[in-house]
Amino acid sequence: MSRKPITFMQAINEGLTQAMEKDDRVFIMGEDVAGGAKVKHLADKNEDSWGGVFGVTKGLMPKFGRERVIDTPVSEMGYMGAAVGAAITGLRPVPELMFNDFVGFCLDTILAQGSKMRYMFGGKAKVPLTIRTTHGAGASGAAQHSGSYYGLFASIPGVKVVVPSNPYDAKGLLLAAIEEDNIVVFSEDKTLYGMKGDVPEGYYKVEIGKATITRAGTDLSIVTIGKMVQVAEAVADELAKSGIQVEVIDLRTVAPWDEATVIQSVQKTGRLIVIDEAHPRNSTATDIAAVVTDKAFDYLDGPVKRVTAPETPVPFASNLEQLYMPSVKRVLDEASEIIDDLKVVKA
Amino acid sequence: MKQLTPDLAKTAYKYMNDIRHFEDRVHKVFLTGAIPGFVHLYAGEEAVAVGVCSHLTDSDYITSTHRGHGHCIAKGCDVNGMMAEIYGKATGLNNGKGGSMHIADVDKGMLGANGMVSGGMPIAVGAGLRNKYLKTDDVAVCFFGDGANNEGNFHEAMNMASIWKLPVIFVNENNNFAEATPQIYATAAKTIAQRAEAYDMPSERVDGKNFMAVFEAAGRAIDRARQGDGPTLIECKTYRNYGHFEGDQQTYKYDSPEEEAFAKRDDIQEFRAYAVSEGLFTAAEADQIEQQSTDDIEAAVKFAEDSPLPDPESLYEDVFAD
C-alpha cells in the first residue's frame, strides 16, 4: 500500500481504470475524453489525444478501446440523455460534463429524466449513472467556466452529489459512486487536480453520504465542501494560536449531506460556520444553517455563520476572483463575531 | 423481414382495437373527473405504434412521448396496469406514481412515456448504444411527434445515432400539430423525413394511416438496424382523433377539405378491410377480436376503479435504489 503520493487527477484516473477493470458495463463518454477519434496516425499507434480537457482520462482509451472510452460530439443534451438511456437498460455509464457551467445544455436529462425514472416508474427501474464534472473558481476561467453548481444538482431529489476534497477521497468516492444504482454527480474542483496525497493502490470505497472530521475540536465547528477544507484548516491553525479548538468537518457528500455528524459536532461546540464556494441563496450552506438551527437550536451559542461566494457571477480579473472566493480572513472575521465571548471565558 | 402472418395480423388488429377502445374509454371517464391530471390520447394513430411494434420483441426497446398509451399497448404492456396507473391507483404499472405521461414497463422494453417533448430521443440513442455495446441484435425505436423535430434533442440524437451507426429507428408521428401549432408554421422543412439527409441517414415517408405502409417501412428499417447498418428515420403522416390534451377545443383543426378528409380516415377499419380481403382473418374473426377488445378494456376500467389508492407511505419510497 505504501507508495509516493499521487495527484487528485491521477487518483481519479486510477479509480476510473479500476472501475472499468472490475465491471465491463462501465464505460466513459464525453467531449474529448480520449480526443482525436478517427485520426489515423493516432489510431495506428493506439494513442489518445487530450484524454479529457484537463487530462483526467488520459491513457484510458489506449487501455480500454474506443468502445469504452467514447468521444462524443459537442452535444451535452444528446450524450447525457444517451447515458441515461444506457443506464436504464443495464450499462453503467460515467459521462463527463466538462464544466458544470454547461449543465444548461443537458439539465433535462438529469432533472426531468434520469433522476425521476425510478420514482415515476414505481421503483421498477435503476439508473446507475455517475456524472463527472468540474466546478470552482481560481483558475481564471471567468463567469462561464468557474461556477460551483453542486448545490443545484443537490436540489433535485433522486440525485446524489459528491464533492471530494483530496486524492484519497476522490478515488474512494468515485468507486463508490460507480457502484451506486443511482445518479451520482461527482463534482471535481479543477483547482485541486494537482493536489498530492496518499492513495492506496488497490480498490477501495469511501462511503457516500458520510462526512469526515478532519480535525477534532470543542469550541467551533466548521463545515466545509471540497477545496474549502483547506481554508478551514488554515483558520483552525490560526485560531489554535488563541487557544480555540476548531472542529473541521469535510462534508464529502453534498446530497444527502450528513446531518448526524454536523449536528453532533454542533452539540459539542455550540458554534457553526459553513464555508461554501457556491452562491449563498437557496444553497447547501443555507440549507445546513436552516437544518442546524431547527434541529440543534438549544445547543447554539450564536447564529450559524455562512462564508460563501457573493451573489454574483465569477469575475475574471484575478484580484476580483480572489475576493469572490471564501478566504481565511473572511472566515476569521465571521468567527470573531461568535467566539468573542469564548475568548473571554478561556482567558 | 418479418412477414404479416395471419397470427401476427390478428394480434396487430387486437392491439389496434385495444388502443382505440382504451383511448375512447379514457376520454369518457376523463369527463367524469375520475381521472386526474393531463391526458393526451393516441386514438387515430394506431397504425403507427402497432405497425412498428409488430416487429419487436420484449428485448427490443422503445421510447415514447406524452401521447404514449398507444406505444405501451403495442409493446405489450398490461392494460389493467395501464388503466390503473392513469387512475392513480396502487395497482398501476408504476404503482400510481407515474400517471398517463410516465407509464413504463422496463421489463417489456418500454422505457417510458415522456412528459418532455423529445425527451425520449437521446434515451433511445442510449438504449441503442447499449445494444451495440453488448453486441446484441436488439433495436431501439424512438417514437416522437412533429413538435419534437424542432427540439435540439432531435438533432443531437439523430447525429449521434448516425455517426455511431446505432440500431435506432426514429419513428416520427407527424399528426400535423405541435399542440395547436401546425407543422407548416413551425418546421422549416417541407417534410420531416428530409431532415434525415442532414445526418446522412436513410429515411422514408409513409401514410401513417395505412398499417401495411408503416409495417413494411418499419420492417426494412428494423432489419437494417439488426444487421448493424445503422439508424433510419421514418416519417408517418397521421392525425389524432382528439385534441392535444383532454379539454382542448381543437379550433385549429380542419383548415382544408383535404385535411378534414385525411383526419376522418379510420386506420383500423382500413386495416380490417385489407386483412379480410387478403384472407389474414375473416370478418367474423375481426368481429370477435373487436368484442374481445371491448371486453378487455371494460375489465381494465373496472380493475382500475376497484383498485386501492397508493399507500401514503409510498410517497417516500423509490427515490433511490438501495
Automatic annotation (TrEMBL), chain A:
Transketolase-like pyrimidine-binding domain boundaries: 6-195
Keywords of the record: Oxidoreductase, Pyruvate
UniProt-recorded Gene Ontology molecular function terms: oxidoreductase activity
SMART domains according to UniProt: Transket_pyr
InterPro entries the UniProt entry points to: THDP-binding (IPR029061), Transketo_C/PFOR_II (IPR009014), Transketolase-like_Pyr-bd (IPR005475), Transketolase_C (IPR033248)
Oxidoreductase is among the record's keywords: yes
CDD domains assigned to the protein according to its UniProt record, in alphabetical order: TPP_PYR_E1-PDHc-beta_like
Gene3D superfamilies in the record: 3.40.50.920, 3.40.50.970
SUPFAM superfamilies, per the entry: Thiamin diphosphate-binding fold (THDP-binding) (SSF52518), TK C-terminal domain-like (SSF52922)
NCBIfam families cross-referenced by the UniProt entry: PRK09212.1
The protein, known as: Pyruvate dehydrogenase E1 component beta subunit
Protein's organism: Agrilactobacillus composti DSM 18527 = JCM 14202
Lineage: Bacteria, Bacillati, Bacillota, Bacilli, Lactobacillales
From TrEMBL, chain B:
Keywords on record: Oxidoreductase, Thiamine pyrophosphate
Listed GO biological process terms: pyruvate decarboxylation to acetyl-CoA
Keyword Oxidoreductase among UniProt keywords: yes
InterPro entries: DH_E1, PDH_E1_Alpha_Subunit, THDP-binding
Family annotation (CDD domains): TPP_E1_PDC_ADC_BCADC
GO molecular function, a single term: pyruvate dehydrogenase (acetyl-transferring) activity
Pfam families xref list: E1_dh
Co-factor requirement: thiamine diphosphate
Database matches in SUPFAM superfamilies: Thiamin diphosphate-binding fold (THDP-binding)
Domain Dehydrogenase E1 component span(s) in chain numbering: 16-313
Protein name, as recorded: TPP-dependent acetoin dehydrogenase complex, E1 component subunit alpha
